[in-house]
Specification:
Order of helices and strands: EEEEEEEEEEEHEHHEHHHEEE
Distance between the termini: 42 Å
Number of domains: 2
Mean pLDDT: 89
CATH superfamily of the largest domain: Calycin beta-barrel core domain
CATH topology of the largest domain: Lipocalin
Strand order of the largest sheet: 1-2-3-4-5-6-7-8
Shape: elongated
Helix content: 10-25%
Radius of gyration: 25 Å
Low-confidence stretches: none
CATH architecture of the largest domain: Beta Barrel
CATH class of the largest domain: Mainly Beta
Number of helices: 6
Length: 351
């Protein structure tokens, strides 16, 4: 598999380069800060001077007594967005440090600022996400300061936010905890498919969409007619992408893996409640569907060395079936009896 190093930002595409029209809903760049000098001072005494032109910002980093970071200065291209009167969101990439980006919230009305430094680790580190964020609240030098300092909040936990980039691109974020959120692509163009293999991104799918329920209803409402072209699994596998399956339980109507397995092969309701098929050209084989639910799912979670296949040294996680579920007609997969379920070598269900 050919992969790209995500820390090498020279290989990144601009937003409009991801696909035609991807940036359709992007707000226009504001030049309202052009000609202004804004100095942000944080709790360590560090001063960061920003001198804005129309499209570039010249900055000087002057570390305080409690800041071990070396002094630095440079000029970078930037984007600014006027969120409200005297409230700006500014972002720029460091040319001298391409694995680092700056998001700067400037509240000129209250004299406060928040710098978010996003760092892409050069290599994966166990127990850490590849992208690290560092938050530095500060005040704007010379401004009258009022209101509360920016601080961590749990306001978003439990909320769902839909990011609609264009008529063809939509993503959903669900905020789970102070540190974690989940996201899924609700709509995207076929041109994204080859990029999954190159970036080593898993296509995490919920195959339980071929019969009435919350998930297909949501897809229909969000995507309209595009919902009829959901889950291009055949195209994903043919492009070399890793397809991983999950139940989405308890959102889905059933956590029964056999139902999802059969749906991947037949593209039809495995229980016969809904007529027809969903984009039958995207059906995959039973053997491929089995990998979707086993080794592919484990690999997508970073557990491919521990589980996902019956291999010496891995955890003994398996089910015992009354017959070979994928050897016969695909329409009979869901009728296969599960005799027992084993986890880490222990029987947890059945005889």
């Amino acid at each position: 598999m050919t992969t790209l190093n995500p820390a090498d930002t020279s290989t990144w595409l601009p937003l409009e380069g991801l696909a035609p029209g991807f940036d359709a809903n992007k707000a226009p760049h504001s030049t309202a800060l052009s000609g202004r000098e804004i100095t942000v001072v944080d709790a360590r005494g560090t001063r960061i001077v920003h001198r804005f032109a129309d499209a570039a910002v010249t900055w000087e980093y002057q570390p305080g007594a409690e800041d071990a970071t070396e002094a630095a200065s440079d000029t970078d291209d930037y984007e600014a967005f006027e969120v409200d009167a005297d409230l700006y969101f500014v972002q720029f990439h460091h040319r001298y440090l391409p694995n680092e980006a700056v998001s700067l919230i400037l509240d000129l009305r209250h004299g406060r600022a928040l710098a978010v430094i996003s760092e892409i680790l050069a290599a994966p580190e166990k127990g850490r996400t590849r992208v690290q964020h560092h938050f530095a609240p500060g005040v704007i030098e010379g401004a009258e300061v009022s209101g509360a300092e920016a601080a961590p909040t749990t306001t978003l936990i439990g909320r769902r936010v839909e990011w609609v980039y264009s008529t063809e691109h939509a993503y959903e974020h669900v905020y789970l905890s102070p540190r974690w959120y989940s996201w899924q692509c609700l709509a995207g163009p076929e041109s994204d498919i080859p990029r999954l293999q190159a970036l080593d991104v898993s296509a995490d799918i919920s195959p339980f969409i071929w019969y009435p329920g919350v998930i297909p209803q949501a897809l229909s409402e969000v995507l309209g007619e595009r919902a009829e072209h959901s889950q291009p699994n055949r195209a994903l596998i043919d492009a070399g992408a890793r397809v991983a399956g999950g139940s989405d339980w308890p959102v889905s109507d059933s956590p029964n893996t056999l139902e999802g397995l059969q749906g991947l092969v037949t593209r039809a309701d495995p229980l016969g409640r809904a007529p027809g098929t969903l984009w039958p050209e995207q059906a995959i084989t039973a053997e491929e569907a089995l990998e979707v639910f086993t080794i592919n799912a484990a690999t997508a979670m970073g557990l491919g060395d521990e589980t996902g296949s019956l291999t010496p040294g891995k955890s003994a996680d398996f089910v015992v079936l009354a017959r070979d579920a994928i050897a016969g007609p695909a329409e009979d997969i869901v009728r296969t009896e599960v005799i027992s379920t084993w986890f880490a070598g222990r029987r947890v269900h059945g005889d």
